[in-house]
């Protein structure tokens, strides 16, 4: 594996925000150009047929609940995605989350830099950590914040401007925790398991990590990615899409597909940890974000990951002669995830039996 670049080189990645580059340059710097290209104009790709899941039915005893469980299993075993509706989070609150995200990214650069991440740390405002001189960088700025466990919060990088930012983030996390529990239980039931089968592996101190993303316009969208292709190291990922600007794409059967925008739906995808727990039945999708030549895009992602001290492994009931164990047990899977991600590797591949 390539060595981490010196601290001074890593620090330089924070010197110029992509937001500034987008304003002041007519062409991206060479370090953002993907030598292999990205496979054609984003407009050429078809839309992915992602099942729409009614979460109010999953949490009910109605006759329709069984059909919704079947839809859930189909969604997560085919493409790893669903569009969650009737999730119990008010539209007005989702608007607040989008508004406070926009308020932060439109602050003067010097104000945003008050919350810059430390060198070789992900928490805070910045862009790619540079692990290799050969690394191709992503065309985005973001704000990473560890939300749980509470003792992992680095409050110095939690914005105090906008003044409502911290409260809204905590409220969003609490609401998504409810959604996450509903889905964890429903996923187990859809496979004929006891409803707490996956939650048992979640541990006492699960990780909740939030990421606020800004994808500025890019003059050469066919050559630059907003986020390189990757799978999520989380158990589950919840994404609030930009209301108007598309960009998320998913890989299925070696074909890239666009993920459509459904107003007020939450895009949910399986992460590597749930693929392990389900012994490969549920798929952690490879996905990427493409750039737009004219419009910026903002999204909010929240990642739920088991306690790093928990033993995540395939559920015993899902292993038999016809369905052998696919993955090893793992502790602290996320430790080197970000380094693997930036170097274009997938940690999940190292865990296959």
Description:
It comes from Abeliophyllum distichum. Belongs to the iron/ascorbate-dependent oxidoreductase family. This is 2-oxoglutarate (2OG) and Fe(II)-dependent oxygenase superfamily protein. GO terms for molecular function: 2-oxoglutarate-dependent dioxygenase activity; metal ion binding. InterPro entries: DIOX_N, IPNS-like_FE2OG_OXY, IPNS-like_sf, Oxoglu/Fe-dep_dioxygenase_dom, Plant_2OG-oxidoreductases. With 353 residues, the protein is of the alpha+beta class. The chain has a single domain, classed as Sandwich (Jelly Rolls). Helix content is 25%, strand content 19%. It is built from 9 helices and 12 strands. It has helices at 7-12, 18-24, 55-58, 64-78, 91-105, 109-112, 165-190, 272-277, 337-342; strands at 52-54, 81-85, 124-126, 141-148, 207-215, 225-230, 236-240, 248-252, 255-258, 266-270, 287-290, 297-305. The strands form 2 sheets. An 8-stranded mixed β-sheet has the order 1-2-10-7-12-5-4-3. Strands 6-11-8-9 form a 4-stranded antiparallel β-sheet, with no helix packed on it. A hairpin with a 2-residue loop joins strand 8 and strand 9 (255-258). Helix 4 (64-78) packs across helix 7 and helix 5 crosses helix 7. The longest helix is centred in the middle third of the chain and has 26 residues, at 165-190. Mean pLDDT is 90; it is low at 1-14.
